[in-house]
Specification:
The structure holds 3 protein chains of 3 kinds. The longest helix of chain A has 21 residues. By secondary structure, chain A is of the alpha+beta class. Chain A is built from 3 helices and 5 strands, in the order αββαβββα. A 5-stranded antiparallel sheet of chain A has the order 2-1-5-4-3, with helices on both faces. Chain C is α+β, with helices and mostly antiparallel strands. Chain C is built from 12 helices and 8 strands. In chain C, strand 3 and strand 4 form a beta hairpin. The longest helix of chain C is centred in the middle third of the chain and has 19 residues. The chains are: A alpha+beta, B alpha/beta, C alpha+beta.
Chain lengths: 123, 182, 284
C-alpha cells in the first residue's frame, strides 16, 4: 500500500493548527492502532486509538441493529468539549477533539474536507 | 427481567468470540475489525469493543454474555465490562505458552477490580502442543490447585462443551451464595 | 511429562520460574538457534550444541553442555585437584545413586568450599550465560534419572539463578514483549514466597508494589530510567515476588474498598435463578 505517514502527519498537523477550537486529532486503524496523530500533551496515542476504534465499532453496530443505516459520525458532547469520530474509508477512523466554544457547523465542514483529503492519502 | 451478566475474557486467540457464538441463542452482536497488528498472523478479525450474546431461559430470566477484546490497548473495555459482571470466565489457549503471561496480567487486572466468582477455561486442549491443565495452572500462578478457581476444558466451538463451562460458573455462584465471603 | 517450544514464546526465566514453582523434576534441554553478541563464541559449534539442566523438585541439581556425564570430572581435572586416571578410578567406586561430588567429599578428597565453587561454575555461571540466547528451542522431559556423575550434591532453587542471570543480561530484545507495561503497577504475589536476596533497587521497587502506582511513576520517584524499572519489575515478577496489574486509566486506580468489591458480585442473583439456569444448561 505504501501509506505516506509523513504526509498524513502533515495533514493532521495542519488541520489541528489551522482549524479554530480544535485541540487534538488522530487517525487510527479500525482495529485501534495509531496511524498518525497530533494530541494534547498527556494523552496517550495508543489509548486514544483503541478507544476511537471501540467507539466507532459500537456506533456502527448501533447503526445496523437499530436501523439507523451507515454511520457518518459519532459525536460525544461533554461539559468541556467535543470528541467527533468520523469514518475515513475502509482503513481508518478520524478523531477530532474540539473545545466547547467550537461552532459545530464549521467544524463538521472542516472535518468533511480533511476526511476527503486523508482518504486520498490512504488509497 | 432478571439478568445475570457474565464476562468472557482472556488473551488474543483464546476463543472468546467463538465461545459466545456457541452458546448465544441470538445472533451475537460483535465488533470485529480486520486485525492489522501481530494478531493478524493468528486470525483475520479481532474484537475491538465487545461481543454480546444472550441466553434466555425463562420468560423473565436471561444470561447476558459479554466478551472482551484480548489486546491490552483495549483494557478500558475490560474495566467497563468487569465492573457490572456477576461472574467471569477466563479462557486460556493451552497450546500457546506465549499468552500465559498475558492471561495472568488480565486475571490480575480483573481480580484487582472485582471479587466475583470466576472459572478458568482451557481452550485448544486438543492441539498436539497443548500444555497439560495442571501445568498451565502453574504458569498462571496457581501453584496449589486446591486454592485455584475451578479449571475446565472448553471446546469453544462446541455448544455442549461451552455449556459445561457455563455450568461451572453457575456452580461457583451457587457456592458463593452458600458461603458468603468476608 | 514433556513440554517443548521456543524461547521466543516462553523465555528461559519463565521456564525456570515454571519448573521452580511447579516443583518439577527432570531434564531441560536448550538448543540455541542464534547467539547473543556476548556469547557469540565459535558460533558454528555453539549453535549445534545443546545445554542440559537437571532439576529435582524445582531445584537445579546439575548443568552441562554435553550429555556424556563427564562435565564435573573435567572441571575437577582442569583445576588440577585430581588427575584423570585417579578420577576414572573413583568413578567406578562411586556408589550408585549418590552424587559424585558428595562421594568425593565423603572420601575427604574435596572440601565443602571446593564443591561450592564447582557448583557455582557448573550451574550458576553456565545458566546465566544461557540468558543471552536470542533464539532457541527448549524441551523438558519429566522422567529422567538424576545425572549422579554430574552432581556436586548441592542444589539451588531454579529461581535463584534468575536474579543474577537477568541482572547481568545486556540484550533484552527477546524479553522486550515480556516486560511489564509502563502504565502497569505491581502487587505482591501472594501465591509464592521466594527466599531470595534482592539488591537495593529491587527491594525498593518491591516496596512499591501497592497495585496503584504505575511503573512510570515508580521510575520518576526513584529517578531511574523507565526501562530500568521495567527490567527490575520483570525480575520481581519471574521470581514470584510480584504480579503485574494493568491499570487501565489513572482514574480507575482510585481506591475501591474491598467491601465494595465483595458486594458487587453476588447481589441481585437469586439462588432460584441459578438453579433454573443450571437446569437449562444441562439440556444443551
Amino acid at each position: 500500500m505504501g501509506i505516506n505517514s509523513a504526509k498524513l502527519g502533515a495533514v493532521l498537523q495542519n488541520f489541528a493548527t489551522g482549524t479554530s477550537d480544535v485541540q487534538g486529532v488522530a487517525l487510527v486503524t479500525p482495529d485501534g492502532l495509531p496511524l498518525a496523530s497530533s494530541l494534547p500533551g498527556g494523552m496517550d496515542e495508543e489509548r486514544v486509538s483503541a478507544m476511537s476504534a471501540a467507539m466507532l465499532s459500537l456506533g456502527e453496530r448501533i447503526g445496523t441493529e437499530l436501523t439507523r443505516g451507515g454511520i457518518d459520525r459519532i459525536l460525544v458532547e461533554g461539559e468541556d468539549g467535543y470528541a467527533i469520530l468520523t469514518s475515513c474509508g475502509q482503513d481508518a477512523v478520524f478523531l477530532v477533539l474540539a473545545s466547547k466554544s467550537a461552532k459545530q457547523g464549521v467544524l463538521m465542514l472542516e472535518i468533511k474536507r480533511a476526511v476527503s483529503e486523508l482518504k486520498l492519502l490512504l488509497i | 427481567m432478571e439478568i445475570m451478566r457474565l464476562v468472557v475474557t482472556g488473551p488474543v486467540g483464546a476463543g472468546k468470540s467463538t465461545f459466545i457464538r456457541s452458546v448465544s441463542e441470538i445472533e451475537v452482536v460483535d465488533t470485529d475489525r480486520r486485525a492489522t497488528d501481530e494478531t493478524a498472523q493468528l486470525k483475520a478479525k479481532t474484537t475491538v469493543a465487545l461481543d454480546f450474546g444472550r441466553l434466555q431461559f425463562g420468560p423473565d430470566m436471561a444470561l447476558h454474555l459479554y466478551g472482551t477484546p484480548g489486546q491490552f490497548r483495549f483494557d478500558f473495555m475490560w474495566d467497563i465490562l468487569i465492573r457490572k459482571a456477576h461472574a467471569y470466565i477466563m479462557l486460556v489457549p493451552a497450546n500457546r505458552p506465549a499468552e500465559f503471561r498475558n492471561a495472568r496480567r488480565i486475571n490480575s487486572f480483573m481480580q484487582q477490580r472485582s471479587a466475583v466468582p470466576m472459572v478458568i477455561g482451557m481452550t485448544h486442549m486438543d492441539c498436539e502442543d497443548a500444555w497439560e491443565m495442571e501445568n498451565v495452572a502453574i504458569a498462571l500462578g496457581y501453584l496449589d490447585l486446591s486454592k485455584a478457581p475451578p479449571i475446565v476444558t472448553v471446546d469453544a466451538q462446541d455448544p455442549a462443551s461451552s455449556g459445561q463451562a457455563l455450568m461451572a460458573v453457575v456452580r461457583q455462584l451457587m457456592q458463593a451464595h452458600l458461603k458468603p465471603r468476608h | 511429562m514433556v513440554i517443548s517450544g521456543y524461547l521466543s514464546d516462553f523465555s528461559l526465566p519463565e521456564i525456570l520460574q515454571f519448573l521452580d514453582e511447579g516443583s518439577k523434576s527432570g531434564l531441560l534441554a536448550v538448543q540455541p538457534s542464534g547467539l547473543g553478541a556476548r556469547a557469540g563464541v565459535a558460533s558454528s559449534t555453539a549453535l549445534s550444541r545443546h545445554y542440559f539442566i537437571w532439576f529435582n523438585e524445582g531445584r537445579i541439581i546439575a548443568a552441562a553442555d554435553q550429555q556424556d556425564y563427564r562435565g564435573l570430572v573435567r572441571m575437577i581435572a582442569q583445576r588440577k585437584w585430581m588427575d584423570e586416571s585417579k578420577l576414572r578410578q573413583l568413578i567406578s567406586q562411586c556408589p550408585s545413586g549418590s552424587a559424585f561430588g558428595s562421594f568425593l567429599k565423603s572420601q575427604n578428597l574435596l572440601s565443602a568450599d571446593q564443591l561450592r565453587l564447582l557448583f557455582s561454575t557448573q550451574v550458576i555461571r553456565q545458566i546465566c550465560a544461557l540468558f543471552e540466547l536470542v533464539n532457541g528451542s527448549y524441551q523438558f522431559v519429566g522422567t529422567v534419572q538424576p545425572p549422579f556423575l554430574e552432581m556436586t550434591g548441592l542444589s539451588a532453587p531454579a529461581k535463584e539463578v534468575i536474579l543474577p542471570g537477568l541482572r547481568a543480561l545486556d540484550n533484552w530484545s527477546t524479553l522486550a514483549e515480556k516486560l511489564p507495561s509502563s502504565s502497569s503497577s505491581l502487587i505482591q504475589n501472594l501465591q509464592s514466597q521466594p527466599e531470595l536476596r534482592l539488591n537495593a533497587q529491587e527491594a525498593q521497587v518491591q516496596g512499591l508494589t501497592d497495585g496503584r502506582m504505575p511503573l512510570q511513576q515508580i521510575a520518576k520517584q526513584m529517578a531511574l530510567p523507565l526501562e530500568t524499572v521495567q527490567k527490575i519489575a520483570f525480575r520481581l515478577i519471574v521470581t514470584g515476588f510480584a504480579e503485574e496489574v494493568p491499570l487501565a486509566t489513572e482514574a480507575e486506580a482510585r481506591a475501591d474498598t474491598p467491601a465494595e468489591l465483595e458486594s458487587a458480585g453476588t447481589t441481585g442473583i437469586r439462588q432460584g435463578f441459578l438453579e433454573r439456569l443450571m437446569g437449562y444448561l444441562n439440556q444443551i
